[in-house]
Amino acid sequence: MPTHEIGLQVENLCVSYQGVPAVRGVDLEVKAGEAIGLIGPNGAGKSSTLLGIMGATARTGTVRINGIDVAGLPPEKVVRQGVALVPEGRHIFSELSVLNNLKLGLVGRREKTGIPEAFAEVFTLFPILEEFQGRKAGLLSGGQQQQLAIARSLMANPDIILLDEPSLGLSPTAVDTVFEALDVVRKAGKAVLIVEQRAEFTIAFSDKTFVLHDGLITLTLGPSDANNVDVLTEAYFG
Ligand SMILES: Nc1ncnc2c1ncn2[C@@H]1O[C@H](COP(=O)(O)OP(=O)(O)O)[C@@H](O)[C@H]1O
Ligand SMILES: [Mg+2]
Q1: HSE-CB of 222 using CA atoms within 13 angstroms
Q2: How many whole angstroms from 39 Cα to the centroid of ligand 2?
Q3: Which of the residues 177, 190, 194, 210 has the least number of beta carbons within 10 Å of its own beta carbon?
Q4: Would you say the CB of residue 57 lies under 6 angstroms from ligand 1?
Q5: Closest by alpha carbon to 154, among 171, 131, 178?
Q6: CATH 3.90.1150.10 fits 7-91+160-237, yes or no
Q7: E runs forming strands in the chain
Q8: Ligand 1: does its nearest atom lie under 6 Å from the Cβ of 19?
């Protein structure tokens, strides 16, 4: 029976490149109001999992966005079902202003109403973006650019947000700012899937964290595992 719950369901997701498997049957679910972590060493298949969900790479398995199977849909149509990817490296347009970068996020928006409110919401979440809205995005710091990338994804008003290593290259303060914002986003009822290499941080933050190894989920952790060295060692080297 199809479910019409808000959120993301992934079953037996497989991604290969030229016949070499990178994701080998991943199952996961992210519900509205939840943040789920996906951690694992470099090359484990974290980014490929996100690309597979978005339809941005060839894949098999089932991906349901708000209960709708998006198998075979190209990324631009997957986006229209209510999911947004904040890619690794942020991919902001450095020559464009902060404001114009945010406007680009409107492309994936399903409803055409509520746009002034969407700007107001992201400016409340990230006040620095309001202050620097006329600046070229390339002049922002790394942390500010990450805030911009997240804000841009929110302009589409997605139900589900996927983030690929949002803390990469950021200062500890900038990481805190980003994760405080993600907490607000989660509490606002969105489904949040965070790919990270920072294990402890992600485990502590997320409602549940999956450990990916060589394309397979090998372990599921809860917030109380964040300081358990044995568990962390097992997660990375087990
Ligand atoms: N475009 C690609 N072409 C060929 N192999 C790739 C490509 N992207 C990733 N891979 C391979 O797939 C595996 C998983 O990569 P990736 O999903 O980027 O892992 P992670 O994000 O966990 O570091 C790695 O072995 C990587 O070399
Ligand atoms: Mg990656």
Answers
A1: 1
A2: 10
A3: 177
A4: no
A5: 178
A6: no
A7: 7-17, 20-31, 35-39, 60-65, 68-69, 83-86, 160-164, 191-196, 208-213, 216-221
A8: no
Mean pLDDT value across residues 3-19? 91
pLDDT tens for 119-166 read 999 999 999 999 999 999 999 999 999 999 999 999 999 999 999 999
Which atom in ligand 1 lies closest to the alpha carbon of residue 48? 17
Distance in Å, CA 38 to ligand 2 centroid: 11
Token readout for 29 is: 């679910």
Q: 233: buried, middle or exposed (CB in 10 Å: 19+, 13-18, 0-12)?
A: exposed
| Mean of pLDDT over the chain | 93
Residue with tokens 């679910």: 29
Distance CA 212, CA 116 (A): 40
- The structural domains of the chain, with segments of one domain joined by +, span 7-91+160-237
pTM of the model: 0.95
* Per-residue pLDDT tens over the stretch 163-210: 999 999 999 999 999 999 999 999 999 999 999 988 888 999 999 999
